[in-house]
Design brief:
It is built from 5 helices and 6 strands, in the order βαβαββαααββ. It has about 140 residues and is an alpha/beta fold. The mean pLDDT is about 95. Pfam families: Ribosomal_L13 (PF00572). Part of the 50S ribosomal subunit.
Length: about 140
């Protein structure tokens, strides 16, 4: 018996829209990572990018449970000594709501070139409008 593997030309990519309004951040990130990897398809292969495109709208209205809004901290480092900066989730959600979701999804993808390629298929918008109408995206319920 031979193991079947999908060819690059056989992979059919769809577009999905996820509305993040009043949805929990972790649940959105987990489902988005699943779609980006292609695990919802029968032709999933871990060594290939078989996933679909995901558009997330209303990113500024995402919900964090418990006290995460006040206690969760995001860190960035410039690479220089003393270059560590920290930002609370509340401030990050107010200023850059797309980055909160992107970091959550990025943590759930593989840490290699395939994971980075899959992350480029994620489009996040703070409000309910997006410029991808021509792709005819399907609504995805979480």
């Amino acid at each position: 018996m031979k193991t079947w593997t999908p060819k690059l030309g056989e992979v059919e990519r769809k577009w999905f829209v996820i509305d993040a309004k009043d949805k929990v951040l972790g649940r959105i990130a987990a489902e988005t990572a699943r779609i980006l990897r292609g695990k919802h398809k029968p032709q999933f292969a871990p060594h290939m990018d078989t996933g679909d495109f995901v558009i997330i709208i209303n990113a500024s209205k995402v919900r964090l449970t418990g006290k995460k809004l006040q206690q969760k901290v995001y860190y960035t480092h410039s690479g220089y000594p003393g270059g560590l900066k920290s930002t609370k989730a509340e401030k990050m959600l107010a200023e850059k709501p797309d980055r909160v979701i992107r970091l959550a999804v990025r943590g759930m993808l593989p840490k290699n070139t395939i994971g980075r390629a899959q992350l480029t298929k994620l489009k996040i918008y703070a409000d309910d409008t997006h410029p991808h109408i021509a792709q005819k995206p399907e609504s995805y319920k979480i």
